[in-house]
Amino acid sequence: MTRASLALMRRALRNAFRRPQFLAPLVVFPTLFLAVNTGGLEATTALPGFPEVESFLDFQLASAIVQSTMLGGVSAGIAMALDIEAGFFDRLVVSPIPRTAIVMGRIGAAGVLGSLQVLWFLAIGFIFGAQMATGPGGVLVVVALGVVAAVAFGAFGVLIALRARSASTVQGIFPLVIVALFLSSAFFPIELLSWPADVIAEYNPISYLAEGLREPIAFGWDAKIILEGFVAGLAMAGIGIALAISALRGRLQAAR
Amino acid sequence: MTAELRVTWALMRRGLNEVLRVPGASIPGILAPTIFLLGLSAVFSEAAQLPGYGTTDFTQFIVPVSLLQGAGFTGAATGVNLARDIERGWFDRLLLAPAPRSVVLLGIVGSAALRCLLPVTFLLLVAFALGVPWPGVGDLVVCILLVMGFASAMACWGTVIALRFQTQQAAPLMQAVAFSAVLFTTAYAPMELLADWLQVIATINPTTLVIDAMRDGFITTMSWYDIWTAVLAIAGMMIFFGLLAVRGMRRLGR
């Protein structure tokens, strides 16, 4: 199981790096957004109710990381759907490997890419003056939580691919990704969101993930907030993986 | 001349036919700027409490940005459609037709100008439903014409990229430029509240003039100065990207 998963993960990563045109949007668009938000809304840190931060860039880095890992999830789903459309998935199914490895390999690749995405944004942040409030230890926490987020979103991407079996359908969920992000505290403090975004953001697990990532970058060691981020991320990852494996089994049963 | 106009109109109609025959393909172009309008209004609404916005309603401030985003997405989509036509060989057949290549380009770009009216209409309905005040017929017409001009300029850019790479996989490059042209401006905040580096870019970026003029239409009233500077900015972008597109068309297959 582990060997097969690792082999499929390596294949997924090789394919991803061979097609940089699919990989680039994962960092290009969140980086552009990060630049525009930081440059355009720096003055909002003066608003009453905005938490005290060194700079708006420190605050926004977490949103860029979440956004990028969410796009990574869509990309993992598209890659899985392309495998289904091209018939490679069927060849994997008839090969002597545990079927769950097909799902776990793809999700594992999303996790590895997630760590690189996090490092990209941290590097961009440091180059442009962001400061890690918790030092090198905080970098490890942010990378770890970023990987958890990437695995969670990758699992949902794979789940949708297994259900839809079409790359264009998976591509079509992109607007929902943006909606989910806007309805969270990823971009702005929850206290400053307008109704009903503030109410929805309270219950949106992406808010906890974003705040868990933001805490070590912008504020410091608050174990509760960081732990809540990990719990939200791991819960999403667990549910996503379970549903993806269930979708795989359902698809195999339907093919019998 | 009449024949050239007929070819241009036929190509524009072909672009519009796609909207009717594949309505699903138009949804992302409408949905994306609408989500941005609603999302940005919900998330950054408090920003308008800062001095300098000229209004306390962030939706009113951001409407021109969403309209131009809709136009930018439409322009980029025109480039993607052209790349698809090149991939499938349809464009080769078009080039064999006895029509000047500049006329073919005009048809493609003209279809983008008309197609952008779809997201623009939807966005305006959403904005008015959210309480954005009616800007007046005159200012609204000028805004719509500016948006159509911007869609044409971005369609020229999409054409340049489609002709250069000849694959739909170049879509992110088309979209990234349209996205940057709109957002690296006074999109989120007035000039004096932008970070220094963004002030420099926004000052150079001609789209800032277009956004500021349209914004005056939605917040106060457009002045003649607003209109002329915005028209000149759009004309400059259309000439710049148009010349690049004409060059790409001339070089194709030679």
Which features does this protein show?
heterodimer, A: mainly alpha, B: 254 residues, 11 helices, elongated
List the helices and strands and how they pair.
The complex is a heterodimer of chains A (256) and B (254).
Chain A: H1 2-18, H2 20-41, H3 56-86, H4 88-94, H5 100-127, H6 135-164, H7 167-171, H8 174-182, H9 197-203, H10 205-219, H11 223-255
Helix pairs in contact in A: 1-5, 2-3, 3-5, 3-6, 3-8, 3-10, 5-6, 5-11, 6-10, 6-11, 10-11
Chain B: H1 2-21, H2 23-43, H3 58-88, H4 90-96, H5 101-115, H6 117-129, H7 137-165, H8 171-183, H9 196-204, H10 207-219, H11 224-251
Q: How much strand content do the residues of chain B show?
A: under 5%
Structural class of the secondary structure composition of chain A?
mainly alpha
Shape of chain B: elongated
Main beta sheet strand tally, sense and closure of chain B: none
How much of the sequence lies in strands of chain A comes to under 5%
Topology pattern of chain B, helix = H, strand = E? HHHHHHHHHHH
Whole-number mean pLDDT of chain A: 90
Task: Give the tally of structural domains of chain A.
Answer: 1
Overall geometry of chain A comes to elongated
User: Biggest sheet of chain A: strands, sense, closure?
Assistant: none
Number of helices, where a helix is a run of at least 4 consecutive DSSP H or I residues of chain B? 11
Order of helices and strands of chain A: HHHHHHHHHHH
Helix content of chain B: over 70%
Assembly type of the shown chains? heterodimer
Helix content of chain A: over 70%
In total, the number of strands of chain B is 0
- Ranges of chain A with pLDDT <50 over ≥5 residues? none
